[in-house]
Amino acid sequence: MKYLYSFIFLLVLYSCSSTQKTTKMIKPEKISVVKGCPDKAECEVEILQNKAIHKTTEETTGKFYPEFKEDSTKTVVKVEMTLNPDKAAVDGQYREEIIFEWPDKSTVNLKGKELENLNLIFGRFCFCDKEQVGYFEIEQGEINIAENIFSLNFENSQDIPQILKEISGEYKLK
Length: 174
Hints:
9% helix, five-stranded antiparallel sheet, 174 residues, mainly beta, globular
């Protein structure tokens, strides 16, 4: 009987000390551009909840493009800057995109090669040389996220002309 009471006591003791810890993932609900959008340009931010970036290579050109696949643990942010959004000018439009996976932490400071963790991609679309159009990986730059403000400074490593090199915004958490 003494062993039975000891066993029950130990069982109660261990069951009381076990607590479950849950980690809430941090994802932006809304982002508005505060700085970095050039004059005469339109900047839009799109939040793709439960999506992840997968790079797919096109067979004919050998260039990659992002596909957004279902992933309940990730959120993708897509910033799009458009110059000359005049619909009448067929070949006068110019667009740049920045796409990345939002980190799961409330405070982030990543530089250089660490940006690969976010799948940071730059896209340029215009009636330009075909070598200077498409999506390019970003390996040079810095992203900072803290206290409802994010800032991103970057340069593409392929020497592709770019207008959008720095952007910052305010965000709300879900």
